[in-house]
Amino acid sequence: MTCRSCNAIIADKAIVCYKCGTPTMETPAVVARPQPRSRAAVGLVGVAITALSAWLVPMTPEGTWMRWAAWAAVPVATYLTARLIRGSGSGKMLRR
Q1: Predicted TM-score (pTM) above 0.85
Q2: Which residues pair with residue 23 across a beta bridge?
Q3: Which of 1, 26, 34, 60 has the greatest CB tally within 10 Å of its CB?
Q4: In a domain, 23, yes or no
Q5: Exposure of 30 by Cβ count < 10 A (0-12 exposed, 13-18 middle, 19+ buried)?
């Protein structure tokens, strides 16, 4: 077999050329993984949404559906914030 870079004669089972160091096989393409979300940033946004929903409760008229919706938004926002900070599946047990 000959090297594709320097045309030196190399062994058939060679991984790299002994003369120039060029690989004999094509290298596989590297797939970039998406960066994980920062838990601090997610937590900060979640806490801000929870605080906003709690701040809106006294601004709604008493005895209306909007007051009930504002009260319901507080625990929902708190739960979603906790789920975002912990990440999906962090509470699940791993099977081996």
Answers
A1: no
A2: 16
A3: 60
A4: no
A5: exposed
